[in-house]
Amino acid sequence: MKILVCISHVPDTTSKINFKDNDTAFDTNGVQFVIGPNEEFGLTRAMWFKEKQGASIDVVTVGEKDAEPTMRKALAIGADKAIRVDAKPVDAFQVAQEIADVAKNGDYDLIIAGRESIDYNGGMVPGMVAKMIGATFVNTCVSLEVEDQKATAIREIDGGKETLTCDLPLVVGGQKGLVEEKDLRIPNMRGIMMARKKPLEVKDPVAENSLVEFKKFSKPAPKGEIKMIDAENLDELIDLLHNEAKVI
Question: Residue 209: pLDDT above 80?
């Protein structure tokens, strides 16, 4: 089985977010970038297929040269080859076009992406890729098994879970649950050394235009002052909720 894992190069969630150029661009100064958490679950699941069923794993990202340390980390975890589409990711349609082009030319059986990246939280790329390459799509996937070119996937739905079976090729929008959090892989020294020798292909982009232009970024409004109320003073609580917060 040949697997393509889509990797998001995203800011660490502990990063302080700032903007520059009159709030029209994200300021990356001092920001640590990592593999997106949803993609980490996907890559670990792909590693399971590699170790149990002999699959091969390619990882792909759409990004500029500063994304290469993130791709090397994916190689250190155990991927066999990395592909970086040399373009600044601007919108979901552009990113999906680039990944779909890689997928079409790679003859992959299974494509695993995160259900959404944690920077823009758009949640559109995996579904777009599936449509562009004519593959089945399962989103919010929390369990995945593949045997004899047939996949069994479990996905979260409102109020429960749904079990699906389908033929490959398949695109998965994965999340926590594909593997247990304790099973996530941390690169060891041997993996880091081996990653230096693994291929990292830089590919020219194919998408001509993006559909989105960013006008302005803004941070959420700061939280208001916290008022502590005696647990026995229900009259004051009701008064504040009614006259100040105006929620009742």
Answer: no
